[in-house]
């Protein structure tokens, strides 16, 4: 029972974190995702507002699940290494926790399947705050063979120039970059877009689309196998 509640608590904690992301992403400040009417409700006072009720309830459920785990830990901590009547307390805690855990999984599965992504808003946000500056520094190290300490300094100066010009890095003229590091070539622009930055992360666990597709297929296959063995 204790191990079951431990696993449920850890899993529910991750569900809660994902629920928090959905709550933030669906807010007007971000607008990354939109929840359907199946998993949101209208505001009692603002007719235009859509509240992410299901995500908020999933986020709250971890409190009950974690509380059940900690309650049983407290029961067990003072017992000798044999059965004691105290252990009958595990049933109510475990059944309630697993009921709520099942509800949280069902709600989250439905939300993920049902939500709509605003890919343009996501792409725009990903490119803000000079997010590809690290790609620029990596290019300086890889192509010009600068020490990373020097590349870091050069990148900082280029970002400062872009901020002054009020343009993203991939819109900064090559002449402005060469004024800081003369050996920079037009090839630098191949790493300065968000799309190319994501595609370049091809190492294990990287964000390149081919990596994501590969691991998605692997996990779907594993889940289908686990479901078929029950």
What does the secondary structure layout of this molecule look like, with pairings?
Layout: H1 2-25, E1 33-34, E2 41-42, E3 50-51, H2 53-77, H3 90-114, E4 116-117, H4 119-126, H5 133-144, H6 148-165, H7 174-178, H8 194-200, H9 209-228
Antiparallel strand pairs: 1-4, 2-3
Helix pairs in contact: 1-2, 1-3, 2-3, 5-6
Give a nutshell description of this structure:
With 230 residues, the protein is mainly α. Helix content is 63%, strand content 3%. The protein has helices at residues 2-25, 53-77, 90-114, 119-126, 133-144, 148-165, 174-178, 194-200, 209-228; strands at 33-34, 41-42, 50-51, 116-117.
Description:
The chain is mainly alpha-helical and 230 residues long. The chain folds into two domains: 1-124, Fumarase C, Chain A, domain 2, CATH 1.20.200.10; 128-200, Fumarase/aspartase (C-terminal domain) (Ribonucleotide Reductase Protein R1, domain 1). It contains nine helices and four strands; from the N terminus they run H-E-E-E-H-H-E-H-H-H-H-H-H. The strands form two sheets. A two-stranded antiparallel sheet has the order 1-4. A hairpin with a 7-residue loop joins strand 2 and strand 3. The protein is elongated. 22% of the residues are buried. The model has no long low-confidence stretch (mean pLDDT 92).
